Amino acid sequence: MDAANQLTALLNNMFATGLLDEQFQQLQMLQDPSAPDFVSEVVTLFCQDGERIIGELAKLLEKPTVDFDRVDAFVHQLKGSSASVGAQKVKNTCVQFREVCQLKSRDGCLKTLDLVRTEFYDLRGKFQTMLQLEKHIQGFK
After folding, report:
1. Which residues have a Cβ under 8 Å from the Cβ of 116 and sit 6 or more positions away?
2. Which of 19, 38, 64, 124 has the fewest CB atoms inside 10 Å of its own CB, making it the most exposed?
3. 112: nearest Cα among 126, 44, 104
4. Domain extents for the chain?
5. Spatial distance between the Cα atoms of 13 and 118, rounded to a whole number of angstroms
C-alpha cells in the first residue's frame, strides 16, 4: 500500500475509533499552499504541550497534599488543547478527570491520569505516523 493510501486508512481508523472528531477536519481545511505545514505544526505543539501537562499532573498528584485546583487547571488546559485539535478521546477523558478532581479524590485522579496518559500516547503515536506519512508523500511531490 502506498503512503497516500496508508495515510487515508490511518485517518479513517482514527475517526472510526473516536480518537479524532470533526474538529480535526476543520483544522485540515485551514491548511493551504501558503501554510503547508499548518496541521503538522499544530499537532506537534499539541503533542509537546500534552506531554508537559501530563508530567505536571503526575508531579502534582505525587505530592503529600494535592492542590486539586492546580490539577483541575492543568486538566482544563489539556482538555482545551485536545478540543482544538479534535482529540476526542483525550478531551472526553479530561471531562471525566475534571469530575473526579472536583470530588478531591487522589486515587480517582491517579486512575484517570493513567487513562488520559494511555489515550494521549496512543493518539501521539498515530499522529507521529501520520506526520511521517505526510512527509513521505510531500517528498514525492
Report:
1. 54, 57, 75, 78, 90, 93, 94, 97
2. 64
3. 104
4. 38-133
5. 17
Q: Chunk the chain into consecutive blocks of 10 residues (it has 141) and report each block's average pLDDT, rounded to whole numbers.
A: 92 96 94 87 97 98 97 98 97 98 97 98 98 87 56
DSSP 37: T
- Cell, residue 68: 486539586
Long-range Cβ pairs for the range 9-17 (8 Å, 24+): 10/126, 10/129, 10/130, 10/133, 11/130, 14/123, 14/126, 14/130
Question: What's the half-sphere exposure (Cβ side, CA atoms, 13 Å) at 12?
Answer: 6
Nearest C-alpha neighbor of 42 from the set 54, 27, 22, 63: 27
Confidence (pLDDT) at 21: 97
How buried is 47 (Cβ within 10 angstroms: 0-12 exposed, 13-18 middle, 19+ buried)?
Answer: buried
Class of domain 38-133 as given by CATH = mainly alpha
Q: Which amino acid is at 122?
A: D
